[in-house]
C-alpha cells in the first residue's frame, strides 16, 4: 500500500522510575521503506521499538501498524508484524525446528506450512546441521538467526528487528541482508536498529538518529547525512565530546 505508513509511533514515552528512557518519539515508516534506527548505547532504541510493536506498555503515546493500533487491535497488529524478540521471551529447551513448530502453531499456521517454511528457514540460515542442539545451547549468532526465523515464519508485512546483525558471522550476515532486501523488494517494510553505520548506509533508505530518548534527526538517508557520512552526522548530533578517545592511564604500565 504505497503512500501508507507501515508504522507510526506517536509521542512514545517511557519512564522507568526517575529515568525518562524515551521522551516523546514520533516516527513514521512509509510502507516499502527500509528504515534504520541508530543512536548511542542507552539512547532508547530498544525501548522505543519494543513499545512500538506492542511488547512494552508505554507511559504515554501510541503506535499503529498499517493504521492498526498495536494495543487496541493486538491480534491484527501481531499478524502484520514480525519482531526479533529478545531471547528470553521464547522457550529455549527446544531444538530450532521444535521452536519454529511451537511458534507456528501458536500463530495458528497450518502444520504443513510450518514444516515447509521451517525447513527452508533452517536451511537458508545455516542452522539445518544443528538438528539436535537445543536453543539454550546455541551460540549468540545462532540464537539471533533462529529468533529471526521465528519473526519471519508467519509471513509478516513489517519486520522490526533490534540489532539483527549483532554477533552474526559474515556469511550469515550476507544471507540476512539478502532476505531483508528481497522482503523489501517484494513490498515489505523493515525497521532495524544497528550500531554499524556502514551497514545502515548500505541497506536503508531512511534513517532516524536517537539520542537521550529523542529523535534528533530523521528522513531519507541523504537528508540525514547531508553532505557528509552518516557517522559524521551521528557524531555531530550525539555530541562531539564523545569523540575524544579516552585511555586508561594505568593499563599497560609495567
Ligand atoms: N527495564 C528497565 N528498567 C529500568 N531502566 C531501563 C529498563 N530498560 C531500559 N532502561 C534504561 O532505558 C535507557 C534506554 O535503554 P535502551 O535499551 O532502550 O537503549 P538502547 O538505545 O537500545 O541501547 P543499546 O544501544 O546499548 O542497546 C537506558 O538508560 C536503560 O538503562
UniProtKB/TrEMBL annotation:
It is found in: Cell membrane. One of its GO terms (molecular function) is ATP binding. Pfam families: ABC_tran. Residues 7-237 form the ABC transporter domain. Keywords: Antibiotic resistance, ATP-binding, Nucleotide-binding, Transport. GO terms for biological process: response to antibiotic. Gene3D superfamilies: P-loop containing nucleotide triphosphate hydrolases. Its main location: membrane. InterPro entries: AAA+_ATPase, ABC_transporter-like_ATP-bd, ABC_transporter_ATP-binding, P-loop_NTPase. It is a peripheral membrane protein. GO terms for cellular component: plasma membrane. It comes from the Bacteria. This is ABC transporter ATP-binding protein. It comes from Bailinhaonella thermotolerans.
Amino acid at each position: 500500500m504505497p503512500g501508507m505508513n507501515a508504522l507510526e509511533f506517536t509521542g512514545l514515552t517511557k519512564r522507568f522510575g526517575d529515568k525518562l528512557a524515551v521522551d516523546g518519539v514520533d516516527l513514521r515508516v512509509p510502507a516499502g521503506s527500509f528504515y534504520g534506527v541508530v543512536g548511542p548505547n542507552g539512547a532508547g532504541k530498544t525501548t522505543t521499538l519494543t513499545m512500538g510493536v506492542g511488547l512494552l506498555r508505554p507511559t504515554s503515546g501510541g503506535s499503529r501498524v498499517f493504521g492498526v493500533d498495536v494495543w487496541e487491535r493486538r491480534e491484527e497488529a501481531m499478524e502484520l508484524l514480525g519482531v526479533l524478540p529478545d531471547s528470553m521471551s521464547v522457550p529455549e529447551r527446544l531444538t530450532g525446528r521444535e521452536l519454529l513448530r511451537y511458534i507456528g502453531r501458536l500463530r495458528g499456521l497450518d502444520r504443513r506450512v510450518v514444516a515447509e517454511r521451517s525447513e527452508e528457514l533452517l536451511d537458508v540460515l545455516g542452522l539445518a546441521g544443528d538438528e539436535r542442539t537445543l536453543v539454550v545451547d546455541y551460540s549468540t549468532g545462532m540464537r539471533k538467526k533462529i529468533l529471526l526465523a521465528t519473526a519471519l515464519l508467519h509471513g509478516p508485512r513489517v519486520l522490526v528487528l533490534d540489532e539483527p546483525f549483532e554477533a552474526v558471522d559474515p556469511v550469515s550476515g550476507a544471507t540476512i541482508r539478502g532476505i531483508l532486501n528481497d522482503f523489501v523488494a517484494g513490498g515489505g517494510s523493515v525497521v532495524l536498529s544497528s550500531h554499524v553505520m556502514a551497514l545502515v548506509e548500505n541497506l536503508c533508505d531512511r534513517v532516524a538518529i536517537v539520542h537521550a530518548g529523542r529523535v534528533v534527526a530523521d528522513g531519507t538517508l541523504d537528508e540525514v547525512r547531508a553532505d557528509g557520512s552518516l557517522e559524521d552526522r551521528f557524531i555531530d548530533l550525539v555530541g562531539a565530546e564523545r569523540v575524544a578517545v579516552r585511555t586508561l592511564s594505568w593499563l599497560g604500565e609495567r
